[in-house]
Amino acid sequence: MGTPLEPRTAQAEEVVDRLLEEYPDSTISLRYSSRLELLIAVILSAQCTDERVNSETEHLFEKYDGAEDYAEVDEEELAEDLNSITYYNSKAGYIKTSCQMIVDEHDGEVPDTMDELTELQGVGRKTANVVLQHGHDVVEGIVVDTHVQRISQRLGLTEEERPEAIEPELMEIVPDQHWQQFTHLLIDHGRATCTARNPDCADCVLADICPSEKGDAEVDLASGEAW
């Protein structure tokens, strides 16, 4: 069992420092060439791997050009274009409706505020944060996906269970200049080492400061269950 640093700000800073060294090229893995493509890719990524999304959007972004195209296409046709994506019927509806609102209310441009983005169908705070950070260079929060949630809990950075509650806690302890990168670092670490089912604690650069380290720890703080 690792021993977390106190206070939590010190733990968070050490986590960032070590992961920056471990993953120096960490960045968003979704592929896109415009703000609209980014928005659509992030909507599609809910409960779906980025790899699958990138495979699907490769042909999607060739077929559709601009919000008007998505707004005007028959929803069933759009759903068929997305049929290898989880919940593709619902996501087709989100994309079509959101693009119609972008055309009608934002002159065809993806909005650049949290309030306006979260008014779009299928866009919550997590999606809006990604679009703001990578589409508009506006960083006003931390994207809390499943990797960030799991690893933050395992490291003792938060005891909250919902992303909406985890984000403000992380914003209090993670240096604001690292808010954007923090997400990508934890995603990379979650994919490479700190996996959901069988984390490789023996080869983890954070093991000595992780209270969930399964060499001696009895409990996975992310699930609350015994190893």
From TrEMBL:
It catalyses: Hydrolyzes mismatched double-stranded DNA and polynucleotides, releasing free thymine; 2'-deoxyribonucleotide-(2'-deoxyribose 5'-phosphate)-2'-deoxyribonucleotide-DNA = a 3'-end 2'-deoxyribonucleotide-(2,3-dehydro-2,3-deoxyribose 5'-phosphate)-DNA + a 5'-end 5'-phospho-2'-deoxyribonucleoside-DNA + H(+). PANTHER family: A/G-SPECIFIC ADENINE GLYCOSYLASE/ENDONUCLEASE III, ENDONUCLEASE III. Coiled coil: none annotated. The lineage of its organism: Archaea, Methanobacteriati, Methanobacteriota, Stenosarchaea group, Halobacteria. The keyword Glycosyltransferase does not apply. Keywords: 4Fe-4S, DNA damage, DNA repair, DNA-binding, Endonuclease, Glycosidase, Hydrolase, Iron, Iron-sulfur, Lyase, Metal-binding, Nuclease. The keyword Mitochondrion does not apply. This is Endonuclease III. Belongs to the Nth/MutY family. SUPFAM superfamilies: DNA-glycosylase. The gene is nth. Its EC number is 4.2.99.18. Residues 44-192 form the HhH-GPD domain. DNA repair enzyme that has both DNA N-glycosylase activity and AP-lyase activity. The DNA N-glycosylase activity releases various damaged pyrimidines from DNA by cleaving the N-glycosidic bond, leaving an AP (apurinic/apyrimidinic) site. The AP-lyase activity cleaves the phosphodiester bond 3' to the AP site by a beta-elimination, leaving a 3'-terminal unsaturated sugar and a product with a terminal 5'-phosphate. Its cofactor is [4Fe-4S] cluster. GO terms for biological process: base-excision repair, AP site formation. [4Fe-4S] cluster binds at residues 194, 201, 204, 210. One of its GO terms (molecular function) is 4 iron, 4 sulfur cluster binding. Binds 1 [4Fe-4S] cluster.
